[in-house]
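Input record (Table S2, row 413):
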Amino acid sequence: MNEWYREIDPPQRLLMGPGPVNAHPRVLRAMSADLLGQFDPEMTAYMNETMALYRPIFGTTNRWTFVVDGSARAAIEAALVSLAAPGDRVLVLNFGRFGLLLVEILERLGAVVETVDAPWGEVVPTATVAAAIERFRPALVATVHGDTSTTMAQPLGDLGRLCREAGALSYVDATATLGGSAVLADQWSLDVVTAGLQKCLGGPSGAGPITVSERAAERIFSRRHTERGLGADASSPGRGPRIGSNYFDLAMIMDYWSEKRLNHHTQATTMLYGARECARVALGEGLTERYQRHAAAGRAVTAGLRAMGLTVFGDDAHRMSNVTGVYIPAQIDGEAVRRRMREDFEIEIGTAFGPLAGRIWRIGAMGYNAMKHKVLITLGALEAVLRAEGFFCEPGAGVDAALQAWEGPTQPA
Ligand SMILES: Cc1ncc(COP(=O)(O)O)c(C=O)c1O
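Output record (pyridoxal-5'-phosphate complex):
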């Protein structure tokens, strides 16, 4: 039979890179359920349940907590295009590739962007952010929480308060942290936070959970200009400039997720099932327990790599628990190691971008893969591959150290 007609039968890879990771089996099962029409009462009930399920995960009581169809970037773009109008001043905290993505999206939509920058491997000090807000007087401040490109997590405890004091809205891309470490939208006074499923939430990419505060919703609805074909009085038009995208127009998407059920795009039913199940799995485990599991996995990966004689990348004080960068040793071909990991062990570890390309690997342990055995198997495989490639590391040292570190809260120096 022609190869093109063969059934999909992917190899059983263990995805230990910066995401995507293997989806939880319950999520995959939920996604194989039959389809419903988008206004079917069963479907709209699932939508309401999904809103309720994501509120505790975002640490919020925001009414506007829902899912944007598309990968995490879709939710990011929807947030930014709906919050920032052309000419609006936006301050971006830039400490890696995904901060630069925020800049890129904002520039495309005509915002006036200023950045506060930190070198890759560090975060932006809060005092620097405060001074920049004071000087630039932005309408919006945007940042990434955990930037997988550098493995750093920006502290967010003061960001929302600083923004509110200055009359600015705040936006956070929590794609790589939501469901794996605390994201406390209300406590941190954040206005809009978005995420994706394919990291700590343990699902496939294709849905972007989002939460929107009342003040951000007010701003978004002030720009509401509902599609003509839905009828002039389908919704009261706002006085603000029309949102510069139809697909990512949060005012229209929120009208669809509200009791108005005003038609927008056709909800991606299967992704909704997946997003809903991701949240059920996370809440069923317990968020505190889940964060502890991710922290244990991060400790174990870091300790194991160090015990193998490798150097972990970046500032220890701000390291994400779920993705760890590690320098590729001198004389070792990083891509050859990744290839052997894949071909001999069916394990994927990540490469890197920009200034870190060819210098570090990124090892992820998150969602369904933040498990002791998966971390140990990955470290054992890496050790074997490194030795085969000519790097000396003491046999078993990495796995032993990881095992110990999984249990204890302290990290070896
Ligand atoms: C922090 C962060 N933001 C955004 C994205 C983009 O996500 P997606 O590829 O799902 O659009 C990623 C993906 O790696 C990410 O790590």
